Amino acid sequence: MTAHELLEKIAFNVIQGRVEAEDEGFDEGLEGQPGVTELVNDALAQGLEPKEIVLKGLTTSMEAVGEKFERNEYLIPDMLASAECVGVAMDILSPHLMKAGVEGKGKFVIATVAGDLHDIGKNIVAIMLKGAGYQVIDLGTDISVERITAAVKENQAPFLGLSALLTTTMRVMEEVIQQLKEEGIRDRVKVLIGGAPTSIEFAQEIGADAYCKDAFQAINLLKTTVT
Amino acid sequence: MIIIGEKINATLDAVKSIILNRDTKSLLDLTQKQASAGADYIDVNIGTGVGSQEDEIRSIKWAIESIQGQVTTPLCIDSADPKVIATGLETLNAKPSMINSAKAEKHSLEAVVPLAAEHDSLLIALAMDEDGIANTVDGRLRSCEKICTACQKYGVPIENLYIDPLVMPISTDINSGLVTLETILAIKKSFPGAKTVTGLSNVSYGLPQRRRLNIAFLHMCIFAGLDAAIVDPLDEELMAAIKTGEVLAGKDRYCRRYMRAFRK
After folding, report:
1. What is the least distance, in Å, from the CA of A20 to any CA of chain B?
2. Which positions in chain A touch B256 (Cβ < 8 Å)?
3. What pLDDT is attached to residue A165?
4. Cβ of B259 and A78 within 8 Å?
5. Closest approach of chain B CAs to the CA of A26, in angstroms?
6. CA-closest candidate to residue A192, choices A160, A221, A147
7. Would the pLDDT of A225 be above 70?
8. What CATH number does the domain located at A107-226 have?
9. Which ipTM value was assigned to this complex?
10. What are the CA-CA distances from residue B153 to residues B80, B119, B165 (Å)?
């Protein structure tokens, strides 16, 4: 396989959501063909640049997945399967990227706020960010204001993502921002929020830097406005 | 879940006349329909109940020769007569196959299990012995034990073995469903690697609204770990129920097959 074909195959399998050869894809009958794991290892063995694999194999295909999701052609499991592919590929590629001295896009602390146990959306965002080159520090769900701000501080993270899926817990986001201010680090970190009950208006009201409708919007925002 | 299409069964009148009249076109039609509906194996039972052993041997040869080359789905040779099974396997000429079935009776095991070894065929074996079908889990497990011992003796890998725990009607014994379910669980525990297969519909015999019971029972069997089912693949409700059961039991990663079947 030429380098070009290999990258196309990686992209194709990310869209199909096939981590390994045995996996089923979105389409029928792909079982047995190499999946993302095998292909990424092949690509490295052939001497392809890790950065090129990320850009041409992972990022563009995940954007395609995002578009399919927007059009309701893809459902949640389809997206999770593709996101897992990106996550696994990034685990393989990370050491090579570091060795090659490719700079990441920075640390990104992410959490679902206290009182809220929802994690699907937060996980998708986390894995997408990972695929986009951020060093993601995923604190999990039901995380206290103190723990979130402490993590931002310790890691000197330039980005913080907050998730809440309940009207009762979305208010905690405001407390987090307040706490960041009190600790004098609010201007050092961009705060992105998301979750079903939140909105642009709400983000503005509580003083967040951005509202993200979904994982793809988060990535796009980071690419354009926020940074 | 492996789906074994049950429609080519000469105990059904329509199929009986297909066999007796050597109606190749209808036979192929029945095969193709099941294959495109998602059958992984097509059961072929040519036992019309009339005629001699020689007649059945000629019938199985005809049926397999007719299907071969036209449909690629592997066949499941279904006969109580080891000679008919042997002829079927020889006619298949090393193509992937399944045998339906051996019983845990000495004679049956001695005649059928070596055929599975010789032809590298998957083997369905029924959890019943010389004393018939036990109505307890322990009784059925004793039959399973005999089956596994024979497989080991004749060199059939345990992964190729599909044990049928057998299904009896709940209309005559209210514990029948439970015995089957618990036998599936016990087989999985006692004989790691061995698979399970069954027909389901016997469970509802003698009761109204059988389909409701069949589907509920199918779901319970999937939860217990049933690996294969002998069913009518043209029954859309049942085929849908396999997908709903498997996805709920965590057997359909990322809900792939469920979504493929039902997304708009």
Report:
1. 12
2. 24-26, 77, 81
3. 93
4. yes
5. 7
6. A160
7. no
8. 3.40.50.280
9. 0.73
10. 21, 16, 21
Asked if B257 and A77 come within 8 Å (Cβ–Cβ), the reply is no
The CATH code belonging to domain A3-99 is 1.10.1240.10
* Owning domain of residue B45: 2-235
Residue B8 to residues A15, B2, B64, Cα–Cα distance (Å): 40, 17, 12
Closest to B164 in 3D by CA, of B103, B95, B86, B239: B103
| pLDDT(B182) > 80 | yes
Q: What is the pTM of this model?
A: 0.81
| Residue pLDDT, tens place only, A153-200 | 999 999 999 999 999 999 999 999 999 999 999 999 999 999 999 999
- Domain with residue B32: its CATH number is 3.20.20.20
The stretch B76-91 carries a mean pLDDT of 97
**pLDDT tens readout for residues A108-135:** 999 999 999 998 889 888 877 887 778 8
What residue ranges do the domains of chain A occupy?
A: 3-99, 107-226
Higher pLDDT, A69 or B144: B144
Q: Report how far residue B86's alpha carbon sits from residue A171's, in angstroms, rounded to the nearest whole number.
A: 73
Instruction: Tokens 């449909």: give the residue.
Output: B71
Our count of domains for chain B comes to 1
Tell me the residues of A at the B interface, defined by beta carbons under 8 Å apart: 17, 23-26, 28, 75, 77-78, 80-81
Chain B: nearest CA to A28, how far in angstroms? 8
